[in-house]
Amino acid sequence: GMALPLKDEPFKANLAIKVVQGTAGAGLSENITADVKFIGGDKVLKQVDVTFDKHGVAILSDVELPGSAQPYITVRNEGVTYLTIGTVMGSTAADQMLRVNVFEATTVAPEWSVPMRHVMMRRDPKGMFITEVLVIETPGDRAWAGQPLDKVVKDAAAAHKAYPKAGDSATLVLPLPEGAIDVRMVRGLDTDTTVVADGKIISTKALTPGTLKLQIAYIVPQHQGSVTVDLVAPAAVRNMVVFVPDDGTKVDATGLEVGEMPNGGKNPVRLYQATDIAATRKSTLVISGLDTQAGMAPGQTEAWSQPVSAPQSADRSSSSTRLMAGLGAGALLTAAVVIMLMKSPAKTTSTSSPK
Fold this sequence. Notes:
This protein has about 350 residues and is mainly beta.
């Protein structure tokens, strides 16, 4: 039946956590440590340290909580930290079981790739507001802590000063279009473990096997009514689709083909696409005529410049609704994909970072 809204009343939570070794042939380390924070209304209601038995199981019984709360489980194994977020618990949903996959660490960088990259552009008073949804695929069965940060940024000391919580290693490196400003991590990258430097978004989280869905947003400012958006492939990209408002502006695309777009919708869009893009290859869109009034329908300015940022722990549906509102009906083709990406898995969302 329908899930009833949880009453915000005191209750006793029961949480079972099972740690599973994801690396073939490896056993579980004896010194896995973990803690659970029960978070309600952006406050830590209770924090509990966790110890696992030899089967990797820990059971927390009758944890007294003042109201409904969401468990955030942090597991530390071989210098890599794994964060798993459970579903909200309350008096009518007091029991939960969570599984956390851990992996042996490797110093060898995995050949991660990007099966899908969707780039959605919207007009903004400053230029072009761009939202990207990327799917990152990491092969193998080991966790990679990364390479030293100073191999990726010119001034690691300055990066540390600007991002004191971030680690010393770099795993995912996502080049931004030249001149990008107001960079934000909307989903999949934790602001604490991410550095923005030298025109790149750099994750300092360990990279674990499997699929990671990211959403980032930024603005590329206009110069004399023109915006140049350089999209550099961070790794091999299988499919890239770019959506540009069809609003009377002119688009010159290099390294992209014009795609078919279903007609209709209040805010029609033009579609550009590319497949099998080699790492570091650059595709460029120059959008001009932004200073002519053709680009802005009356009263459209405000709606088109709404930021699409969502707090890290917020419910994902709100950010997907906001993203869809910004895209307009023209982008129905990608709508299902974006919504699908933004729906969190039913039980847990797992990310990881070096300690």
